[in-house]
Amino acid sequence: MQIIELNEANKAELKKTLEKRSTNHFADIEEKVNDIITNVRENGDAALFDYSERFDHYHLTADNIRVTDEEIQEAVKAVDPEFLRILTKAAENIRNFHEKQKRLSWIDTQPDGSILGQKFTPLEIAGVYVPGGKAAYPSSLLMSVVTAKVAGVDRIVMLTPPGQGGEISKETLTAASVAGVDEIYRVGGAQAIAAMA
User: Fold this and answer.
1) The domain 11-196: what is its CATH number?
2) What are phi and psi of 160, to 5 degrees?
3) What are the pLDDT digits (tens) for 33-67?
4) Could you give the C-alpha distances from 117 to 103, 104, 112, in angstroms and in order?
């Protein structure tokens, strides 16, 4: 962690840096993202593949976008067994916690014949975006995917940006396997979210 000591000499520069993070500067970003969404909506996979080349420096195609079961199995075999044990235990803890939060549907017939109740229906499909590329976030993946599985989501599709060679970190793939992800695609950024939507 970088520690910066505030003093008169660096005060103005630090203020300028913090102001750059301000929401006042999000309009430019929002415009760029809207352009990406529009392009993906209008041009589909061609736009998605172009953005992958531009931003991720990876030649994405219809043949290599989906991570194969073999790639996932190889990743699970390649991680440190202690990492796998800890990941599995974390998934179990998350599952147990969210099982206690689950709400059940109920119906109650009243003496006058009226029927009251609530019905909880999980989504059929959920999309999960897992940041990646230069870093792995297995804990974030577990928190979103295990929770969706507990809620009863049938199919979970995961998107994560690839490294320059198209690789996804073995830790991320292992976490996806442990959590129960059904499909994994190596694509990131706003273009991935647009394509998933």
Assistant:
1) 3.40.50.1980
2) -150, 140
3) 999 999 999 999 999 999 999 998 899 999 999 99
4) 12, 10, 15
